[in-house]
Amino acid sequence: MNRSTLDAIGRALRQHHRFAILSHVRPDGDALGSTLALALSLNELGKNVRAWNEEGMLEKYSFLAGAELLTPPPNAPEQFDVAIALDTATQNRLGKAAEAIRKAKIWINIDHHPSNPGYGDLVYIDPIAPATGQILFDLISTEKLPMTPAVAENLYAAISTDTGSFQYPNTTARTFEIAADLIRAGVNVGRLSQLLYENYPKRRVELLRLLLGTMQFGCDDKLAWFSLSQEMAKSVGALPEDNEGLIDHLRAIHGLVVAIFFEELVDGKVRVSMRSKNEAVDVCAICQTFGGGGHTLAAGARVRGTLTEVTQKIVEKACDVIRHNS
Ligand code: AMP
Ligand code: MN
Ligand code: MN
């Protein structure tokens, strides 16, 4: 933990008044939980806070405390003292939310993606942290910012989702200690876990059934992938948020090294989502060669082309990397 940067961020949060808190497009539990946690804590300090995400609040996370604070950005830009980017590896992944900021005196960048280039004035990137929520826990506790039960619940949701329920290799004793502190601060683990993991709409499982129908294996069964066309998504009425986590069904296969999910987007691009089970096979590096990024074991990219074209290119590259490194 770099205490002096956290202190500088803490001072900026106390000194200024108008804040915009942003996170990445296609937000996950870490992006939304972190945004709400910081927004709620700053609200307690009496600050004027906007919490924006291009997609607004997702239905699946709308049970989170303070969810109503998170909105899509307005059309007309607003003026801020401080803009804060959370969990966002590249500035362009802030999407339209960044465009709604006319001018901010200070940009703060808090993240845990190793591929984050460090944009902004006050930058705190901890690539070891399993979630941005864990960094915010450090910030809020060391800087003595308000930690209400609502803040704690959002931090717990951020950490739980980004660690795959405390399972991924970057989950440490410290992560569990933080979780324990959050429980002491008011989190009801059973209730929150049920809302996070046992509350999916039926259409998500229907989507999984369709996806498994497209499942393919390659590279001596070390690689598996499935694909989602727009037509398939439409046929079950799926929202983009419904497919978060479905790739885990591929990752869980014995002997598998890399899982890939291909999703056809409306703009002539394909969203590629990759998971690796072997630190020597760096899916972030693979995604970076296609303009994306992320972490060693979980990364993504948006690649121009049809589903067939992109699948062929990416599968070939992934298999190449698997053969040379595993
Ligand atoms: P996902 O597969 O969408 O769950 O993303 C896995 C990880 O890769 C997350 O940490 C994302 O922030 C990151 N990521 C996904 N897509 C991109 C992209 N197009 N550019 C940079 N990072 C990405
Ligand atoms: Mn994220
Ligand atoms: Mn994250």
**CATH architecture type of the largest domain:** Alpha-Beta Complex
Low-confidence spans: pLDDT under 50, at least 5 residues?
A: none
In total, the number of domains comes to: 2
The CATH topology name of the largest domain reads inorganic pyrophosphatase (n-terminal core)
Q: Radius of gyration over alpha carbons?
A: 19 Å
SSE arrangement, N to C: HEHEEEHEEHHHHHEEHHEEHEEH
Distance between the termini: 32 Å
The averaged pLDDT comes out at 97
**Name of the CATH first level of the largest domain:** Alpha Beta
Shape designation = globular
CATH homologous superfamily descriptor of the largest domain: inorganic pyrophosphatase (n-terminal core)
Describe the protein in words.
- The protein is α/β, with parallel strands linked by helices.
- The protein has two domains: 3-197, inorganic pyrophosphatase (n-terminal core) (Alpha-Beta Complex); 202-325, Diaminopimelate Epimerase, Chain A, domain 1 (Roll), CATH 3.10.310.30.
- Helices cover 39% and strands 21% of the residues.
- It is built from twelve helices and twelve strands.
- The longest helix is centred in the C-terminal third of the chain and has 19 residues, at 307-325.
- It is globular and about 55 Å long.
- The mean pLDDT is 97.
- One manganese (II) ion binds at residues 30, 87, 112, 131-132, 162.
